[in-house]
Amino acid sequence: MTYAIAQAAERSGLSIDTLRYYERIGLVEPPARDSGGRRSYTDEDLAWLEFLTKLRTTGMPIRMMREYAQLRMRGVGTEGRRHQILVDHRKDVLARIAELQTCLGILNYKIDLYGDRLEASA
């Protein structure tokens, strides 16, 4: 199945401008064009956009996403570096999760403290 850029934007959750930007900076290969010259995205393109969105959501810098994307486009022989990029990023994500867990613990402590005080004054 193929999708026009507006449909791809809707399905991916990205804006049309972001899709064009990702294409311009080399995160996505230029999609095929239909007979009218309009971009035509495939399910495979959408799956790649979903993966890029996950990388971005987890805080991977654009420069690392670009390196990964360029390696992916080169294909066979780049698996080792792609693997290392993901392993390194996972380490960063796990550190961020640990940091957020610590922050959550402090929030929970304060919420409980105020809850106890409010209960005592009621």
From TrEMBL:
Query: Does DNA-binding show up as a keyword for this record?
Result: yes
Residue ranges that the Swiss-Prot or TrEMBL entry lists as coiled coil: none
- The membrane spanning regions, by residue number, are none
Family annotation (SMART domains): HTH_MERR (SM00422)
Top-level taxon in the UniProt lineage: Bacteria
Keyword Cell membrane belongs to the record: no
Q: Enumerate the Gene3D superfamilies for this protein.
A: 1.10.1660.10
Which ranges carry the HTH merR-type domain? 2-71
The record's listing under InterPro entries reads: DNA-bd_dom_put_sf (IPR009061), MerR-type_HTH_dom (IPR000551), MerR_fam (IPR047057)
UniProt keyword annotations, A-Z: DNA-binding
Q: Where is the signal peptide?
A: none
Name this polypeptide is given? MerR family transcriptional regulator
